[in-house]
Automatic annotation (TrEMBL):
Organism listed in the record: Paracoccus aestuarii
Statement: the UniProt record of this protein carries the keyword DNA-binding: yes
Pfam families: TetR_C_3, TetR_N
InterPro entries named among the record's database cross-references: Homeodomain-like_sf (IPR009057), HTH-type_TetR-like_transc_reg (IPR050109), HTH_TetR (IPR001647), Tet_transcr_reg_TetR-rel_C_sf (IPR036271), Tscrpt_reg_YcdC_C (IPR013573)
HTH tetR-type domain residues: 14-74
Taxonomic lineage of the native organism: Bacteria, Pseudomonadati, Pseudomonadota, Alphaproteobacteria, Rhodobacterales
UniProt feature coiled coil, ranges: none
Protein name: TetR family transcriptional regulator
Ranges annotated as DNA-binding: 37-56
Molecular function in Gene Ontology: DNA-binding transcription factor activity; transcription cis-regulatory region binding
Keywords assigned by UniProt, alphabetized: DNA-binding
GO biological process, one term: negative regulation of DNA-templated transcription
PANTHER family given in the database record: HTH-TYPE TRANSCRIPTIONAL REGULATOR RUTR
Amino acid sequence: MTETPAPALSRIQQKNRDLILDAALEVFSGAGFHGATIDQIARMAGLSKPNVLYYFGSKDEIHKALLTTLLDLWLAPMTRIDPKGDPMAEVLAYVQAKLLMSRDYPRESRLFAHEILQGAPHLTEVLGGGLRVIVEQTVTVLERWMDAGLLARVEPRHLIFSIWSMTQHYADFDTQVRAVLGEGRDPYAEAAVFLETLYRRLLTP
């Protein structure tokens, strides 16, 4: 039996849904899943609790909607790595894309970090499925470049882990980074130069 597609949301409905997700992002990224409540999300969105529950049946449903959107966003730069491109340029472009995402989407990064620290209860299937597939596809490309002598040989999965941790650190530990650097310095501009130097030296054959 063919499922009937859900009716399209009206402009007001879409606006309210977006308000709820943005408010939930603020609450979840600060308090984590267990510390957040529907009441907090409703206040942040400027809506009533029943109104929030009209669009999302539970806190869990809101959280899953956010994480699904986040993973699509987070994985997009990896899917844009071109197997036919210049290997060093492709890797460095990926590093810079991940750094810019930390700069532009710090709440999303912290939300993801909260979920992972809790054992990823809402992401178990995705982490073992879609994420792993995309990572393994990227590993195949990296290994091909290394076999051809176009990149220095390193363990490709750990290379990817290092890029994730080095770039997302600036979002997840923003307060610490800015406290150490002091006022008047742009951590992302400085990190862009540092990380390009680091990975260029690491991967130059």
